[in-house]
Amino acid sequence: MFNTLRTQASSILHSTETTVENRLQNLCELLKDTVPHYDWVGFYFKNGNKEELKLGPYAGAPTDHTIIPFGKGICGQVAVSNQNFVVPDVKAQDNYIACSITVKAEIVVPLFINGENVGQIDIDSNTPDPFTEEDERFLEFINTEVAKIYIP
After folding, report:
1. With contact defined as beta carbons under 8 Å apart, do 44 and 119 qualify?
2. Phi/psi of residue 115, each to 5°?
C-alpha cells in the first residue's frame, strides 16, 4: 500500500497545475481516504517567528486546535524535540491535547527544510496502537517530498 501511495503522493505534490496549499490538501485527503488507520491527517507549520504551530491543510473532523504552543501536546513537543513521536495510546500521555474522544493513537513526524524544523505531519487514528516503523518511514518520505515544494 505505501509503495503505491509514494507514487501517488509524489504525483500530487509535484503537479504544478495548482497551489502548494491545494496540493497539500489533496495529499491529506488521499492519505485519509486510503490508509485505513489514518482518521485525521494534517499539517502544522511554524507560525512565522512565534514559538507556535499553525494548522495548515488537513482532512478529517474539524479541530479547535488551530494554534499549538511549542512544547504543548504531541505536536508542540515535536516542534521542540525535532524527533518523530509515535503514541500508541493517547490516554497514557500526560501532555496530550485531545482533539476527539474517538482518537486512540497519534503519530507526528517533523518536516525539515535546510535542517530547520518548519512543521510536521500529524496523523490521528481511532485504532489503538496502529502505527509501525513502515508508517514512520512513509511519513518521513512524505515530508521529504513536501520540503521540495513548501516555502515557509
Report:
1. yes
2. 80, 0
